[in-house]
Design goal:
The protein has 223 residues and is an alpha+beta fold. The protein is built from nine helices and four strands; from the N terminus they run ααααβαββαααβα. The radius of gyration is 26 Å and the shape is elongated. It starts with a helix and ends with a helix. InterPro entries: Cyt_B5-like_heme/steroid-bd, Cyt_B5-like_heme/steroid_sf, MAPR/NEUFC/NENF-like.
Length: 223
Amino acid sequence: MVKLVIHVIWVGLSTILISRLNINSFFMRFFRDLARSKARRRLYGNKHALVPMLLGMDDPIIKTLDDEAAEEQMVSLTLDELSYYDGEEDEDSGEDTPIYLAIKGRVYDVSAGGSFYGPEGQYHDFVGKDATRAFATGCLKEECITSDMDGLNEKELKEIDRWIELYETHDKYKFVGKLVDDVVEKVLEKEEEQQQEEDSIEEKEEQRDNEQDQSEKEQVKTN
């Protein structure tokens, strides 16, 4: 009887959740929470974490690797460098590259989840990128796979922390390092901004000169 009640409750909860999220997002978060609940049982002895997670009532546990050993081994990658680690075959070595992804600037090796993140995996579009917005919203469209967090609400920001918890506490995924700005790219962007400012100033000066010339011509006609 108890099993039947649990089954009915589970079906009901599943129906509610699926109605709120698209199918891909639902299963994506379901398997994430299943892995998180296993990690909490393994690390903290919590045997009842799954139901609150599925109801969205849990508070994420952020277990960042900030000890000295981890910091010494941590690498810094630019987005361009991160894009290399997509699980595809390396042209020089002929071997598949590791599979990295980033969320909120933190880079993780998810090679152990090749069936999900590998070239044939459902979430391969996430690898080699910082897909923070996609993790937050559940949107799997190309325009959503970005690090841009502008406009995210509190609920979506909490989703980011739940994903970070998954990658931080997973027994097979590994923290690699953090994303950093590409120095050369930043210099080029700054030069482009300066050029745009100079062009804008020149345009305003030219417009002012034209207006002044026009004003002088009108005065001459009047006289």
